[in-house]
Amino acid sequence: MELNDYVTLGRSGLRVSPLCLGAMTFGPDWGWGSSVEDSKAILDRYIERGGNFIDTANVYTKGHSEKIIGDHVGREPARPWPGSR
């Protein structure tokens, strides 16, 4: 499966990767999980491979997951779609 073989997300019209990157463990706030640096490396690799759909929520690592994603990919010209709950 290639990450850039995009599919339509429901009836939204959004074209997203067939594999969504889960970011629940981005940030060490729960005493475990990925460091900020590791989280950025994971994001970079996912985006390099064509990924554009990221699952996050404001409760993941006390909101730190969303901040890591926003700070890191917010400057990308073709930004990934964060799927937040």
Describe the structure.
With 85 residues, this protein is an alpha/beta fold. The protein has one domain (20-84). 27% of the residues lie in helices and 16% in strands. The protein contains two helices and five strands. The protein has helices at 36-48, 64-73, and strands at 7-8, 15-16, 21-22, 53-56, 81-84. The strands form two sheets. The chain has a three-stranded parallel sheet with strand order 3-4-5, covered by helices on one side. Helix 1 packs across helix 2.
Gross geometry: globular
Query: Which structural class fits the helix and strand makeup?
Result: alpha/beta
Q: What is the averaged pLDDT score?
A: 88
Helix proportion range? 25-40%
Radius of gyration: 13 Å
